[in-house]
Amino acid sequence: MTTTLASAVKPRAEDSFAISFAPLSLEEIYAKSDDPANGAVVVMSGVVRNQTDGKPVIALEYQAYEPMALRIFYQIAADIRLSMSDVNRVVIHHRTGRLQVGEISVLVAVGCPHRSEAFEACQYAIDTLKHQAPIWKKEHWEDGSSRWVSIAACETSGENC
Fold it and tell me: Of 84, 114, 122, 151, whose CA is between 20 and 30 Å from 98?
């Protein structure tokens, strides 16, 4: 699967994409990904953890360039459907603002007739989002220091962000 933004991709009505300051709901995302034709719904939940490379984290702050991030989300869904025709639903929601340890920062859900396609599509969606969406996070550490990190930079540098 390859993502290109040569032409504007419009989202499908059955899918759901959002950048939100409000907390994300697993139940809502699951409901949006559910379909009577699904045999599987795979949900990936990204959560703020309490450390990065052994350094205690107290919070993360996310910012996004929303119009472009949403276009990337739409393209991810279009790419998934080009390679897997059985996908029924694609849901991608990401938080912005300051999040505490334990809060959900991103939810990706894919509904398909079969689990293997659902797992593959969900993995593709989160990996591509992290590489291509204009979303940045600021790590706030226990010692009072902080630093902005591009999510894509985390992936390319090999850091486990």
Answer: 122
